[in-house]
Design a protein that fits this description.
With about 220 residues, the protein is α/β, with parallel strands linked by helices. It folds into two domains: about 140 residues, Rossmann fold, CATH 3.40.50; about 60 residues, DNA polymerase, domain 1, CATH 1.10.150. The protein has nine helices and eight strands. α8 links the parallel β6 and β7. α1 crosses α4 and α3 crosses α4. The radius of gyration is 17 Å and the shape is elongated.
């Protein structure tokens, strides 16, 4: 018997968190006497976790890379205090998750955001109840695109058929390294054209996702 699981990236896939990430970046920069960076710039920096985001911010400003650890901590303080003021789930997310749950699919989140804030954001947005498994960027020594977290989530859910849903090049590479099918959400934070990102299907509306998942979990087995 096939036990199906659908695993999701968080930022840029389930939630549009760029406005709050931009706000946190502006607060961090203001505290350092720096001018804010445009929203589009911060949005383009999202991916690979907070440490990489702050590294990219440092590279775009007059800040010193030697201060990176302190600035990451400062960014997380600002972000943690305001992480859901502007962040919202993408349209149709809750309905799609409810449908998957009704169909008996196991659901999980695998993100490079630290686990505690990821869980807090899911809870504040009313999505936590869908996800018995949440893997963060600090849950293991390895982070995406290393497949450890993805495979661990599938194992925890006792899945024999698993699909990963994400929005980025990192997500696609993670799925490829885990040998799992990947569905690309085209409205997130990818940096490359769709045709350059390996995927088994793509969608711009969550209304379309269940129909893409069903044939994949009926033919895929996690060994």
């Amino acid at each position: 018997m096939t036990t199906a699981a659908v695993l999701f990236d968080l930022d840029g896939t389930l939630i549009d968190s760029a406005p709050d990430l931009h706000s946190a970046a502006c607060r961090m920069l203001a505290a350092e006497g720096q001018e804010p960076l445009p929203f589009a710039t911060i949005r383009s920096f999202i991916g690979n976790g907070v440490a990489k985001l702050v590294e990219r911010i440092i590279g775009a400003t007059g800040l010193d890379m030697a201060d990176h650890p302190r600035l990451v901590e400062a960014f997380m303080d600002h972000y943690g205090a305001h992480s859901t003021e502007l962040t919202r789930p993408y349209p149709g997310v809750a309905d799609a998750l409810a449908r998957f749950r009704m169909m008996g699919y196991g659901l999980g989140v695998v993100t490079n955001k630290p686990e505690a804030p990821a869980r807090a954001i899911l809870a504040e947005l009313g999505l936590a109840g869908f996800f018995p498994v949440v893997i963060g960027g600090d849950s293991f020594p390895e982070r995406k695109p290393d497949p450890t977290g993805l495979l661990s989530a599938a194992e925890t859910l006792k899945a024999t058929a698993t699909v990963f849903v994400g929005d980025s090049e990192v997500d696609a590479e993670t799925a490829g390294r885990a040998d799992l099918p990947f569905l690309l959400f085209t409205e997130g934070y990818r940096k490359s054209p769709v045709f350059q990102i390996p995927h088994q299907g793509m969608f711009g509306s969550f209304d379309l996702l269940p129909a893409l998942v069903e044939p994949l979990v009926s033919t895929t087995r996690l060994v």
